[in-house]
Amino acid sequence: MTPFPGHIIKVTGYMRIGMKISPLTVLKAGIPNYIIHLLGALADVDKNNEYVLYTNRPIPFDLGLPERFQTVTVTFPSPHLQFWYQIGLPMRMKSDGIQLFHDPVYPLPFVLPVPGVITVHDLSNYTNPGVHSFRSALSGRLFPAHLRKASQIMTDSFFTASELERLFPRAAGKINVIHLGISDRFRRITCKDTLESVGQTYDLPSRFLLFLGTLEPRKNIERLLEAYALSCSGIPHSLVITGGLGWKYDKLLKLISDHPNKNRIHLTGYVKDEHLPVLLSLAEFLVYPSTLEGFGLPILEAMACGTPVLTSNVSSMPEIAGDAAFLVDPLSVDSISNGINILSSNSELRSELSKKGLERAHSFSWRKTALKTLEVYEKALK
Known about the structure:
Blueprint: E1 16-20, H1 31-45, E2 50-55, E3 69-73, H2 83-96, E4 100-103, E5 116-120, H3 124-127, H4 134-141, H5 143-149, E6 152-155, H6 158-167, E7 175-177, H7 192-201, E8 208-212, H8 221-231, E9 238-242, H9 250-257, E10 265-269, H10 276-282, E11 285-288, H11 297-304, E12 309-312, H12 317-321, E13 326-328, H13 333-345, H14 347-361, H15 366-381
Parallel strand pairs: 1-2, 1-4, 2-3, 4-5, 5-6, 6-7, 8-9, 8-11, 9-10, 11-12, 12-13
C-alpha cells in the first residue's frame, strides 16, 4: 500500500511549486504571518503557477486561497519531529511533480529532489543560540548545511544579507533581499465605538505606551521595564505589553510582578489579528527596543496606523524605520528611558513621526514582496 494515497490532479501551469506551511499550525505571529501574507499576495499576482502547500498537521483555519493552491498533509513515516520533513516530504514532492521547493523558515530536506529556496529572517539562532529555545538553537547548528543546499536565498533586510555575506562569503552570489509588506488592515482606526469596545476587552488604560511582540529574551523587555521604572514618575502613561509567551519568559513575568510600578503595567497576552490596528491606534506610541530583528514588522504596522515609533538603532530596525522613528540604543537603559521621556512630553514630535511613518509604510507592500519572490523562484529554476 502506498504511503501517499490519492495524488493531486495536475493542471497545466508554468511552475509547480512546493512550500512548507507547517508553522501555520501555531499562533499567527512572526513566521506564520509571513507565510499567510506571502501566499495571499502570490494568489493575487500569480495566475499561472500551481502551489502545493505541505504540512504535518491540519491547518486550523481556512487559508482562503484559489484552487491552484492545494494543501497536503504529510504524516509518513511520522508527523513528529522531522521524520515527515526529511523522509516523507521528498517522496511526496516526487509524487506530486514538484519543480521547486520553498521553505519560508530556512531548513531544507537533506535529500531534496528539486531546487530549493529558503527565507532567512535572521541569524540569531546561529549567532546567539542562548536567546532561543533548545530546538531552535539546535536547528541553528545545521544552518551552514542548509545554506549550501539552497539554490537561492531570500532575506527580509539588507542587514541580514550583510550578516550572511560576512559569515558565509560563498553564499553571497545567491542572496536576494526582499522586504516584507504591510497588510491593508493596518490603518488608523477612528471609530469611537470600536476603540472603546477593544479598549474594554483588554482593560486598557486611557494613555499608554505599547510594546508589541512575543515575550522572549531578544525583545529586550527586561531593559524596557528598567527604563519605564526610571521614566514612570514623570509621565502619565501606562505600559501595555502585548504578545504571546515565547521562551525563557519566566524571568520577565517575575520582573513585572516585582516592578515598582506594576499597577501601571498591563499584560494583554496574545491579541486577535483584527484587534491589533485598534490597539496601535489607541497607543500614544510604540516602544520596540529589540536587540536583534531580521525585519521588525511591528514598526511598519504601527506606522501604517499613524502611531509614532520608538525603536532601536541596531540590526535591521534603522533600515526599516528610516527617518520616521525615534531611535535609541537598546543596550542602554538610560537611552531607552530618555526616548520615552522625550516622546511622552513632545506632542509635536509625535505628530511629525506619525506623518513620516504613514508615508514610510506606504512604500512597503506584500504585492512587491510576492513579485520579487517569483523572480527568485525563476532564478532558482534556471
